[in-house]
Design goal:
Number of helices: 5
Radius of gyration: 13 Å
Largest sheet: 7 strands, mixed
Number of domains: 1
Oligomer: single chain
Structural class: alpha/beta
CATH architecture: 3-Layer(aba) Sandwich
Helix content: 25-40%
Strand content: 15-25%
CATH class: Alpha Beta
């Protein structure tokens, strides 16, 4: 059995019109282990949205759905979790955080998670 890669969606929302919500659903449909972190508890399909950053599995990817100002609250979590990759979706670009991550040898990608999944480059 292959290990399921854990992908954290940071900025998850129950609002079905939000791209973070679409990303959680699509990642789950592609059989990724999804952890949704948002500013309030809730649910996206069968995935619980949690408000804490306690994750007991290694994180492969963090995909951001927070603007650069709101990301500051999560710098320690993002860096300390040692992901292999962080995806900066459109509107989340943050060159300060990218520089910090690159110093830790974390791959930083400016792209759209939904398009990456649909085109097979995720």
């Amino acid at each position: 059995m292959k290990d399921i890669e854990v992908v954290v969606v940071l900025g998850a929302s129950e609002n079905v019109n939000r791209y973070s919500n679409k990303a959680v659903r699509m990642l789950q449909s592609y059989d990724y282990g999804v952890v949704a972190i948002g500013n309030r508890n809730g649910k996206i399909g069968t995935i619980e949205i949690q408000t804490n950053t306690k994750i007991d599995k290694p994180i492969h990817t963090i995909t951001l759905y927070l603007n650069s100002m709101n990301q500051k609250l999560f710098y320690d979590f993002i860096i300390d979790s040692k992901p292999k990759r962080v995806i900066f979706n459109p509107g989340t670009e943050n060159y300060e955080l990218m520089e910090l991550l690159e110093k830790q040898e974390v791959e930083c990608v400016e792209d759209c998670t939904l398009i990456m999944l649909q085109t097979g480059i995720f």
